[in-house]
Amino acid sequence: MVPACKQWMGVCAPIHCPLPLACFMADDQRLLMSLQKGKGTVVEFAGLDNYIRLFQDPVFISSTINTITYFIIQVPVMLVLALIISSILNNPRLKFRGFFRTAIFVPCVTSLVAYSLLFKSMFATDGIINQVLVSLHIVSEPIPWLLETFWAKVVIILPSPGDGPDTI
């Protein structure tokens, strides 16, 4: 008698065998297109000129650095915070455990528009975040969170409870 898993191999093999080939062919076509220049169907071989131009573009370099910075800082911070918060919320002695779980999950189900309006008002120059920081004498004047590039990156990288269920 043939085990059930081997029976399914006969059904799945015709589907899954061509898949890697199709993926490779698509990648092959993308690589070929990246070595060409032109418009529409009128193209000519450009060699590595497109890549040279890409790596000399300051916008590309800036966006790549921003992406790598975001990845290096935000991912480990979110993983550690997610583990800490989930451990705390799974403690059976925690009072109002259901309330805290709900409070953390609510931003996941609220609309993106409502969340963005709340986010914008919290981090405005006269927002609650600056009011707290100034009243606690952590900063002497409000931080322009959304007006300066550096502070905007800090706000984006900082973990926020509305990032979704996959981050907490």
Structural class: mainly alpha
Order of helices and strands: HHEEHHHHHH
Low-confidence stretches: 164-168
Strand order of the largest sheet: 1-2
Strand content: under 5%
Spatial shape: flat
Number of separate helices = 8
Q: Based on DSSP secondary structure assignment, what is the total number of beta strands?
A: 2
Biggest beta sheet summary? 2 strands, antiparallel
How far apart lie the N and C ends? 46 Å
Structural features, described:
This protein is mainly alpha-helical. It contains 8 helices and 2 strands; from the N terminus they run ααββαααααα. It has helices spanning 4-16, 18-34, 49-56, 58-89, 97-109, 112-122, 128-135, 149-157, and strands at 36-39, 42-45. A two-stranded antiparallel ribbon has the order 1-2. It is flat. Residues 164-168 have low confidence and may be disordered.
List keywords for this structure.
8 helices, 168 residues, 66% helix, disordered C terminus, two-stranded antiparallel sheet, mainly alpha, 2 strands
Q: Quick summary of this structure?
A:
With 168 residues, this protein is mainly alpha-helical.
What order do the helices and strands come in, and which of them pair?
Layout: H1 4-16, H2 18-34, E1 36-39, E2 42-45, H3 49-56, H4 58-89, H5 97-109, H6 112-122, H7 128-135, H8 149-157
Antiparallel strand pairs: 1-2
